[in-house]
């Protein structure tokens, strides 16, 4: 299939392009589109055939449910068995925005979209192109991140093209995304509200609205015996092709250890990549050195993280070392993605 590639002004997208995208969705096709978090691969959420196509295009296991994206609050009720009060409260504060909420689904949502679960994940993205596209498509867009399953999520349209060209109908290029890691997921379907995937909206921010908010204990651990409740969190994910190790400890000691590791790997003839920061860049020796910004600026690290992981692949890094970051606030989301990219391979010093 030939994939249409259309550039838009992200704030004021060309109406003809949006209309065309809407027609493709209504005919059961797939369109990749920008959001404020990462690019999504959209299909009609209430068309089971479209969801099946999404799984096939990404090579994604079909037990891993999709997020349903809406553009208007009045579309919410039709998706839910009952809209819990907490959902309205959180929507008022955080929507449109990088927050996904899980609730019991209505019969409108096919099992193909929810990976067979009785619950549905819903989010309203904070991005004009995404919102216009959803409206033009009938109001319900199922969209996982628009990457091949297991690879880093796309933060640029060119990333989507690399992974999915020829496998989907259209890519809407709205430039680089703003946040760079996927939305926070909070489960409202049973017991206390629980964060299943950390993101830009932190536990503290949710607690200010809801009071008590729990957190899935598997988020920063790879060895927990319990399976994570978001099926997608159990897969190795976001991974570059080279094998990756995080080094954790005092910054000076981390730099020293990374340089030793690089020297040892180079002696074996391996091409080495290092993910470093403004504070460490000058002292690191590596074949492929990638700086993600200041250690103290999680937002900057998040914005460049997936792009940098893809650049290691493009430049042929066979082994990759990275420093570690703080795990509070938004840092928790950054470390969760890095740990997954490294397959929880951490060297503590
Ligand atoms: O920022 C985002 O959320 C992006 C953009 C495109 O909106 N989307 C995204 O989708 O990250 P995806 O499919 O890559 O990740 C969705 C995650 C998966 O881990 C999936 O298992 C979980 O949400 N999920 C979806 N529905 C669920 C449900 N009913 N119960 C538990 N987990 C669910
Ligand atoms: Mg994903």
Brief digest:
The chain is of the alpha/beta class.
Task: Label this structure with key terms.
9 helices, binds magnesium ion, alpha/beta, binds threonylcarbamoyladenylate, 5-stranded parallel β-sheet, 30% helix, 349 residues
Characterise this structure.
The longest helix is centred in the C-terminal third of the chain and has 17 residues. The model has no long low-confidence stretch (mean pLDDT 95). It contains 9 helices and 16 strands. The protein is globular. The protein has 349 residues and is of the alpha/beta class. Strands 1-8-2-3-7-4-6-5-9-10-11 form an 11-stranded mixed beta sheet, with helices on both faces. Bound molecules: threonylcarbamoyladenylate and magnesium ion (MG). Threonylcarbamoyladenylate binds next to strand 5 and strand 6. Magnesium ion binds next to loops.
What topology emerges from the helices and strands here?
Elements: E1 4-7, H1 15-26, E2 31-33, E3 40-44, H2 48-58, E4 67-69, H3 85-94, E5 99-104, E6 119-123, H4 128-136, E7 141-142, H5 157-164, E8 170-173, E9 184-187, E10 194-197, H6 203-210, E11 214-215, E12 243-248, H7 251-267, E13 272-276, E14 288-291, H8 298-314, E15 319-323, H9 331-341, E16 346-348
Parallel strand pairs: 1-8, 2-8, 4-6, 5-9, 10-11, 12-15, 12-16, 13-14, 13-15
Antiparallel strand pairs: 2-3, 3-7, 4-7, 5-6, 9-10
Helix pairs in contact: 1-4, 8-9
The protein binds threonylcarbamoyladenylate and magnesium ion.
């Amino acid at each position: 299939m030939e994939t249409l590639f259309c550039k838009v002004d992200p704030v004021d997208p060309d109406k003809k392009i949006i209309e065309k995208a809407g027609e493709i969705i209504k005919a059961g096709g797939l369109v990749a589109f920008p959001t404020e978090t990462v690019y999504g691969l959209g299909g009609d959420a209430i068309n089971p055939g479209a969801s099946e196509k999404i799984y096939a295009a990404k090579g994604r296991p079909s037990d891993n449910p999709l997020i349903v994206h809406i553009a208007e609050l009045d579309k919410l009720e039709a998706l839910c068995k009952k809209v819990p009060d907490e959902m309205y409260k959180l929507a008022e504060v955080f929507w449109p925005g990088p927050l996904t909420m899980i609730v019991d689904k209505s019969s409108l949502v096919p099992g193909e979209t929810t990976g067979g679960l009785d619950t549905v994940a819903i989010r309203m993205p904070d991005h004009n192109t995404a919102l216009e596209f959803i409206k033009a498509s009938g109001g319900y867009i199922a969209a996982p991140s628009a990457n091949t399953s297991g690879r880093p999520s796309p933060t640029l349209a060119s990333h989507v093209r690399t992974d999915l060209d020829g496998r989907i109908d259209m890519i809407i290029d709205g430039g680089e995304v703003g946040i760079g890691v996927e939305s926070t997921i909070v489960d409202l379907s049973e017991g206390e509200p629980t964060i299943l995937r950390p993101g830009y909206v932190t536990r503290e921010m949710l607690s200010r609205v809801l009071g008590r908010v729990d957190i899935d204990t598997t988020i920063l651990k790879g060895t927990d015996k319990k399976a994570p409740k978001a099926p997608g969190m159990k897969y190795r994910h976001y991974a570059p092709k080279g094998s990756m190790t995080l080094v954790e400890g005092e910054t000076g000691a981390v730099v020293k250890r990374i340089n030793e590791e690089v020297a040892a790997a180079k002696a074996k003839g391996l091409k080495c990549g290092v993910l470093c920061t403004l504070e460490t860049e000058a002292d690191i020796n590596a074949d492929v050195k990638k700086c993600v910004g200041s250690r103290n600026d999680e937002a900057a690290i998040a914005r460049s993280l997936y792009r940098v992981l893809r650049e290691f692949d493009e430049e042929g890094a066979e082994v990759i070392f990275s420093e570690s970051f703080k795990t509070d606030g938004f840092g928790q989301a950054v470390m969760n993605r890095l740990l997954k990219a490294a397959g929880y391979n951490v060297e503590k010093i």
